Amino acid sequence: MLLSPLLETKTECDPNLCEDLITTVFNASLHVNNKKQLAENPVVIPLLIEYTLLGTIETRRNAAATFGSLSALDSNKFIIVNSGAVAPLLELLREGHPSAVKDAASTILSLCTVCANKAKFVEQGAVEVILEKINDGIFVDELLVILAMLSTNRMAIEELGDCKTLQSLLRIIRHSSSECSKENCAAILYNVCLKYLTLLMVIRAEEIKKQTCKTCRYWDYKSSKEGH
């Protein structure tokens, strides 16, 4: 069996061999006919979870990328998250290695297209981790896409509903050259303000001074539609 060496005690498995084997699993997962079989194999997902946390950074990012590849099937998204992949993916994101962050973020975005999965990521601290990376200037554009998706979740809105986060998002709108990032910030602000109407006062003050949100088509459209 291809994965037999990975079933050995982790200290006995050569790191380079582990990297090669996880990479092979990733390559196999790219073929559409293998996705269901791999995800439903009782060995594969638990091993990928372990190797998202263990081994070389290349091993870990390839494990995360394999989850992303397998998540192309909606049924696999449930299997991956329900098997315990949320915490390892968030840990990989938290550690901040550039190449690993990209793979972890892409996989998280794919998994969070399922509403139940979105809630599980929020419950396990995704909002805090993502905000930390955004404030550090790491993969801001990519992570704002995930944060905008999570901002429809009630618990996520509660975490996002503070003035510090609000000012951080407004700052991105003012200074970012990415229209996509501006629109995602506006979407997050809009979702938060639907629950915390008092934050609209902060935004109105911002508009009087700097007209920040006026530059966002999303905010302008939603606000005019809702009469804010």
From TrEMBL:
<dbReference type="InterPro" id="IPR016024">
    <property type="entry name" value="ARM-type_fold"/>
</dbReference>
<keyword id="KW-0833">Ubl conjugation pathway</keyword>
<dbReference type="Pfam" id="PF00514">
    <property type="entry name" value="Arm"/>
</dbReference>
<dbReference type="InterPro" id="IPR011989">
    <property type="entry name" value="ARM-like"/>
</dbReference>
<keyword id="KW-0677">Repeat</keyword>
<dbReference type="InterPro" id="IPR000225">
    <property type="entry name" value="Armadillo"/>
</dbReference>
<protein>
    <submittedName>
        <fullName>Germin-like protein subfamily 1 member 18</fullName>
    </submittedName>
</protein>
